[in-house]
Amino acid sequence: MPEFTMPSLGADMTEGTLLEWHMHPGDVVHRGDIVAVVDTEKSAIDIEVFEDGRVERLLVEEGTKVPVGTPIAMLGPVTAGAGSQPKAAPARRASPGPRVSASPLARRRAQELGVDLEVVRDNGSPGVVTVADVERAAHPEPAAARPKEPQRESRPEPPSAPTADRAASMRAAIGALMARSKREIPHYYLESVIDLHGVLAWLADLNAGRALADRILPAAVLLKGAALAAREVPGMNGFYRDGAFEQQEHVHLGVAVSLRGGGLIAPALHDADRLPLADLMAGMKDLVTRARTGRLRASEMSDPTITVTSLGEQGAELVHGVIYPPQVALVGFGRIVERPWAVDGMLAVRPTVTVTLAADHRVSDGHQGGLLLAAIEDRLKRPEEL
Amino acid sequence: MSRQQTRARVAAEQPVVTYREAVREGIRDAMRRDDRVFLMGEDVGRYGGGFGVSMGLLEEFGEERIRDTPLSEGGFVGAGIGAALGGMRPIVEIMTVNFSLLALDQILNSAATLLHMSGGQFNVPLVIRMATGGGRQLAAQHSRSLEGFYAHIPGLRVLAPATVADARGMLWTALEDPDPVVIFEHGSLYNMSGGLPADSWAVGIDRAMVSRPGEHVTLVTHGGSLRLCLEAAEALAAEGILAEVIDLRSLRPLDDATVFESVARTHRALVVDEAWRTCGLSAEVAARIGEECFYDLDAPVGRVAAVEVPVPYPRHLEQAALPSAERIAAAARRLLSGSEAARA
C-alpha cells in the first residue's frame, strides 16, 4: 500500500502546510490529478499525485504543518473493493457468516457512508444489497442529501499565512538556499554581449501579423535560445546530487519570476526546448500569472533543470546569478539596450543584450561555459529555427 | 418569411419516407456528387436489388454505374477492392450477410489488411452494404446476424443504421472514409417509415446516440433491435421504470464512452443483440461495461440475445429464438428487482 508523502517542492523546502485536500477516502485518483494544496514558505502549490490509486486514508488534517517526506495519505490499488478494507477485516473474521451479496456500487457507497453491509442485510435486505438499501440504512429519513457537499461547505476557510509573515518566511527561505548555494557551489561567471538586430527584426515581422494579445515578446525568444543551447552543451542541464552530476534529457527551464509582494520564485517551463515559440510565450504568461496568484503545481516547483533570469525592460544591464541547487547553471539576460556596434568595419547602433552564465565548477569549466554562451548567440542568429 | 420560419415549417411537414427509400436516396445523392461512386452487386440493376433498394437507379445512372454482377461474392467484392485501389469509390451490395461469408477472405485478408501489408501505401476506400438479421421466416441460412464477425476485424469500420436518418446519411460519410466500411441494414427495417427532413444530409458515424433518455437502466443495442428496445422502454415507463436506450450506430469502433456515461448514471445495463450470445457483440459490450463501470454497477450486466440455435423457420419458434420487446422488458425488470424502482 503506497504512502503519499509531503513532497519536496524545491531544494529550499523542509516542511509544508497541508492547506486543502482535493481527494477523499474512496476516491479514485489518477497520475497527474491535483489532489491537495500545500503551502510552502513561498506560495500555495497544487500537488499532483504520481500514481493511480484509490484513497484509503488521509493521515494529515487540513491546516497541519509536517516535514517533507511525512506520509500524508495512504493509497491502495484501484481495483480493491470495500472487502479489502483493513478496518472491516477483523469484524468479518469474528463472525464467519456467508459473504454479503452486494452490488459493487452498494459496496462502494457503504464504504463512503460507513455503513455495515451485514447490518443492512440482517435488517431486511435478504437478497442482494443494492445502493438504495445502503442509502436507506445511512439515512432513515427519506431523500437525504448526499453528505459530501455539506461537509465540504462547513469546512473553515483554508488557513493562509498573513502576507507579512509570508514575505518574511520567503525571505528567510531564499536566504537559506542562496547561502547554501554560495557555500557549496564553486561558481564561475562568464559574460558575453549579443547583437539582437537580426532576431528582433525577424520578431517584428512575425508579430506584425498577430493580434496584440498573441505577440511574442523578446523574452520568450531569449528563453527559447537558452533552452536549445542547454540541450546542446553538456554539463549545464541537470542536477548535482550526492557528489555526482546527473545530466537531464529534458530541458525544464526554471523561469525566475519576481513576485509583487517581494520575493522570487523560479518554476519550470516543461520541455521548453521543444515548445514552438507561440506555445512557449503562452506557457511563460501562464506561469507568471500562476506564480503571482500562488497556483503553481508541485512538478513545476521541483523539477527545473536549469534556470534563466531575464531582467526585462526595467532591469539592469547585467546580472550575475546565484545557482539554484541542485541545478548547476543559471543563465542571466540583462535589459536590451542600444549600443554602438562595429559592423563590417563601420560603426552602427544595434540592440544588444548582455548574457551571463553562472555555472558550477564541480561539473564544468569556463571552456564549456563559453560554448553555452556561444550556442545561445548562434541560436539567436538563426531565429527562423527557434 | 424568414429562414427560421421556413425551417420550422419544413420540420413540421417533413416528408415520411421508408428506410428503403432513405438508403436509395443516399446512394442517388452520392452518385450525383461524385462520379467515382458506382454501385455493384447481385440484381442491383434490372431487378432493382434483392430488397428493392436500387429500384430505378439503373434507368437514372446507366449500366456503367449500376452494375449487375454474377452470383460470385468473392469475385465482385474483390473487383470492388480493385476498383477502390484504382481510385474509384465503389458501393458493393452483398444481398445478405449470409452470403458475405463467401467474400470474407476478400474482406478480411484484402480490404481490411492491405493498408497494413503495404506499410500504409494502399488504402481501400470501399463501402460494402448488406442486409442482416432474421424475423421474416426466411430460415436459418437467410436469417443470420453476423455483424459481430465483422466488428471483430481491425481495419474495418462497421456501421448499423437503425433509423431512416442514418439510412439516409451514413453512406456519404462512409464513402468519405479512406478505409473500408461495412454497413449493415437490418432486413426488417426496409419497410419502416419515419419522418426525414427534405434537406437531410450526411451524418456523423463516430458516436453512439441516446435514442431515449432514462434514469433507471441503460439498454444498449443496435440495428433491428433498436425498435424492440424502444417498445420495451415504452412498456417499462408505464410501470415507472425509465429506461435509457442507446443506439450504438457504429459497431467498430465502439463509442463505449457514451455507454459508460449512461451506465454511470443508471447503474444498470442490459445489452440487446439479435445475434447469438456466445462471443458476440453483446459479449464485447458487456465486458467493457464490466471493465470500466464495475464500481458504478448496482446489478450484474444483463444480456438479451438470440437462443443459440440456427434461426428456426416456423414463426412461433423463430419468435421464441430472437429477442422481443417482452423479453427485453422482463430482463430489465429483473435487473431492477431488489431496488426501489421495482418495489414501488
UniProtKB/TrEMBL annotation, chain A:
Q: Where is the composition biased (Basic and acidic residues)?
A: 146-156
Limits of the Peripheral subunit-binding (PSBD) domain: 101-138
According to its UniProt entry, the protein's GO biological process terms are: pyruvate decarboxylation to acetyl-CoA
Region annotated Disordered sits at 78-107, 133-167
GO molecular function terms listed in the Swiss-Prot or TrEMBL record: acyltransferase activity
Which SUPFAM superfamilies does the record cross-reference, listed alphabetically?
A: CoA-dependent acyltransferases, Peripheral subunit-binding domain of 2-oxo acid dehydrogenase complex, Single hybrid motif
Tell me which InterPro entries the record gives.
Answer: 2-oxoacid_DH_actylTfrase (IPR001078), Biotin_lipoyl (IPR000089), CAT-like_dom_sf (IPR023213), E2/Pdx1 (IPR045257), E3-bd_dom_sf (IPR036625), PSBD (IPR004167), Single_hybrid_motif (IPR011053)
Low complexity: which segments have biased composition? 86-104
Q: Which Gene3D superfamilies match?
A: 2.40.50.100, Chloramphenicol acetyltransferase-like domain, E3-binding domain
**Where would I find the Lipoyl-binding domain in this sequence?**
1-76
Similarity section: Belongs to the 2-oxoacid dehydrogenase family.
What is the recorded name of this protein? Unannotated protein
Record the organism. Answer: freshwater metagenome
Automatic annotation (TrEMBL), chain B:
Question: What InterPro entries does the entry give?
Answer: THDP-binding (IPR029061), Transketo_C/PFOR_II (IPR009014), Transketolase-like_Pyr-bd (IPR005475), Transketolase_C (IPR033248)
Q: Which CDD domains match?
A: TPP_PYR_E1-PDHc-beta_like
Annotated ranges, domain Transketolase-like pyrimidine-binding:
17-192
The prosthetic group or cofactor this protein requires is: thiamine diphosphate
Q: What would be an example GO MF term here?
A: oxidoreductase activity
Task: Say yes or no: keyword Magnesium present.
Answer: no
Q: Which UniProt keywords apply?
A: Oxidoreductase, Thiamine pyrophosphate
Question: Per its record, how is this protein called by name?
Answer: Unannotated protein
According to its UniProt entry, this protein's organism is: freshwater metagenome
